[in-house]
Amino acid sequence: MNKLTLGLMLLLSLALCLSVATWLRGRQELEAITAANESVRKTLGEMTVALADKDREIDRLSGSPCSTGEKPQVALGPAALPASRP
C-alpha cells in the first residue's frame, strides 16, 4: 500500500466514525423529543378531561341565582352590624 491509499483509508474511516456519531446523537435527540411529546400529549389529555368536568359543573350550576347575572345584595352600614351586648 502506498501512502496515498493509506491516507484515503484513514480519512474515510474518520468520516465514517463522525457520521455514525452524528447519527447516534440525532437519534438520542429524537428519543428525547418523542418522550417530551408523549408527556405533553398526556398533560393535554388530562387538561381536556378537567375542562369537560368544569363545563359539566357550569351546566349543573346554570340554574342557581348567581347565574342570572344578579349580584347578591349586601346591606352596608350600621343597620347591617349585629347589636352588641353590654
Give a verbal description of the structure:
The protein is mainly alpha-helical and 86 residues long. The chain has a domain at 7-61. The protein is 67% helix and 0% strand. The protein is built from one helix and no strands. The protein has one helix at 3-60. The longest helix is centred in the middle third of the chain and has 58 residues, at 3-60. It starts with a helix and ends in a 26-residue tail after the last helix.
Secondary structure layout:
Elements: H1 3-60
Q: Structural class, from helix and strand content? A: mainly alpha
Query: Helical amount among residues, as a percent range?
Result: 55-70%
Strands, total number? 0
CA(first)-CA(last) distance: 116 Å
The biggest sheet, with number of strands, parallel, antiparallel or mixed sense and barrel status, is: none
Brief summary:
The protein has 86 residues and is an all-alpha fold.
Spell out the key features of this protein:
single chain; mainly alpha; rod-shaped; 86 residues
